Amino acid sequence: MARFGERRFFVRLDAATDAESAAVAVAGALRIDPGPELWQRALSLLAAAPAVLALDNLETPWHGDDQAGTEALLAELAAVPQLALVASVRGAGRPGRVGWTAPIELEPLGPIESEAVFCAIAGEEHRGKPELSELLPLQQGVPLAIELLAYSAQGNPLTNLKEEWEARRTAVLEREGGARDRLRSWKTSLELSIGSRRMTAEARRLLAVLAVLPDGIAQRDLAAILPDAGPSAARLLAQLRLAYFDGGRLKMLSPVREYVKAAHSPAAEDLGRTMEHYRELARTFGPMPGSPGGTEAIARLAPEAANLDAVIRRGLAEAGAARWIDAATSLTNFARFSGHAAPLPLLRALEVAQRAGDRRREAQCAEHLGRISLARSQPDEARARYQEALPLYRHVGAALGEANCIKSLGDISLARSQHDEARARYQEALPLYRQVGDVLGEANCIKSLGDISLRRSQHDEASARYQEALPLFRQVRAVLGEANCIKSLGHISLRRSQHDEASARYQEALPLYRQVGDVLGEANCIKSLGYIALRRSQHDEASARYQEALPLYRRVGDVLGEANCIKSLGHIALRRSQHDEASARYQEALPLYRRVGAVLGEANCIKSLGHIARARSDAGAARARYEEALVLYQRIPEPYSVGWTHRRLAAIAPDSSTKRLHVDAARAAWRSIDRRDLIARLDRELAN
Fold this sequence. Notes:
Blueprint lengths: L7 E5 L6 H11 L8 H10 L3 E6 L2 H4 L4 H12 L4 E5 L23 H12 L7 H6 L7 H11 L4 H11 L17 H9 L6 H10 L6 E2 L3 H4 L4 H10 L4 E3 L2 E3 L2 H10 L4 H18 L8 H8 L3 H12 L5 H8 L2 H7 L7 H11 L2 H17 L3 H18 L2 H17 L3 H18 L2 H17 L3 H17 L3 H17 L3 H18 L2 H17 L3 H18 L2 H17 L3 H18 L2 H17 L3 H17 L3 H13 L4 H16 L4 H11 L2
Parallel strand pairs: 1-2, 2-3
Antiparallel strand pairs: 4-6, 5-6
Helix pairs in contact: 1-2, 1-4, 5-7, 10-12, 14-16, 14-17, 16-17, 17-19, 17-20, 18-20, 19-20, 20-21, 20-22, 21-22, 22-23, 22-24, 23-24, 24-25, 24-26, 25-26, 26-27, 26-28, 27-28, 28-29, 28-30, 29-30, 30-31, 30-32, 31-32, 32-33, 33-34, 34-35, 35-36
């Protein structure tokens, strides 16, 4: 301020189309009278004392017909002693012949600043409103878009503005007289860049395609989207600031994309090529998660999730939608194993198949929706989908689809500890898999029958089933099935207190899960390693493992795994006599178990709350908790835990006759699973 005083000059160049008109605009800002040697008089005035000259919208004359003349004019200004030359340029380019210092890049506004700009125009009464918190993020911090949105909110309730935005999108960003003023119209502002003399036909083509892709375009895909011109067109769009590069992708800010999508449709040939590119990505990489290369497939698809959704939905609206239904179903494993929460077009595909009377594809869509629901701990939704698909598969004579649905209904029953129902389902599906020669389905059924035996503490039977399934999985190179068998054999070793053997099994399975991109399997192994550490009283190690597994379960939406981790953190607190912390963890896990119908987990939490009551010398409360848990263990049934619960009730029995009843019941439960070691221990400790 002290250096320049009043000698600060601002020049608008948005109407200057060449060097001559730019010189006239500068002279006008300096208030120099028209006449001969106008430019020389302007330079002399600027040189008379220290001054700052700000050239706004310099890109207008620079991108005009006389670029060389504009750069020469700038060179003369830069040579004026004591003149600080500042310029604003739409886009990333900088005129030559001037030694510009590092440019100042204008970044989008943050949430706080965005709200402040909006409320300064629209009124403070809008601050903190939920509708505003929905509208502002859609502007992605672009100051002009926020400002124009705020003017539309004047005298307009935010509820109405939100509905107007949903109907008209960026057409809302318009003030009276906006057709002539870039600062009053989002359309006018953007069309200045889109209509720039620097814009090429290829860049316009890429601009229109980019607008239909919410996730932008990966740099590796540019050549496929726009052959021979993709990278150069992308560079130009970035220089004009109509797009930007971020993490190896070319993207558009949301308000730019919304306008371009409405105003500039892509050419049919470009759109068709783009859609086929993403359909091929879905077809190639979608089925791979859960098999070798799954991790790489997930990494390839995850950044494209919104693009795949948009492209497939567009394809489903066209004639001949069958291949787009197939593209939607091909993404099922991606949704199951990655835990990616992006919207998927499978439900829309189901509706299209139903309207077309395509029963086979209708069944496939319903079954695949069931798979996703089951992976996301939505068993009721999954059951309904499988029951919807089953008669359709039978109608078209698709035995493999029929077997898959029956087996999946068994999986739901198993998750709910309905072991007899689950066993019946697996035994019904098994001959169907053998009938069609599907070794993978056969192996999965055998492995699942092993899971039932494991849940019932029939360890020898379970081990035999896993050992029977393992070579079948290896025969068809089903790495996921192999990993599941190895992990389950680890569970048997863990139940037998063979901790080194169990740890070795989990360490063997863990890289297999990571190889196929199965986040849930990875989480289960990590959690089990935490359980071994807990059994060894390595509490810090156990806690670290559970804390590592917990976000993985949440990422894939596995409520049961989440509940198990929380419960186990409660066990650690209990071991450390942190009873309030332990109780809080069990109370947090309990509704999660109930939500997914996991009776065993529910019973274990209630039993642990009984442990806390017993540690606090509250025998009455402990008995109530143990008896509540016992009913659940007996319902499953789970003889191992039934026996232990009777043993604990015997230890706090109010009289000798009640104690004897519990001892006898514990002995009977363990005898049913041939646990003579536990019976002998019981006799030593409590029989007398």
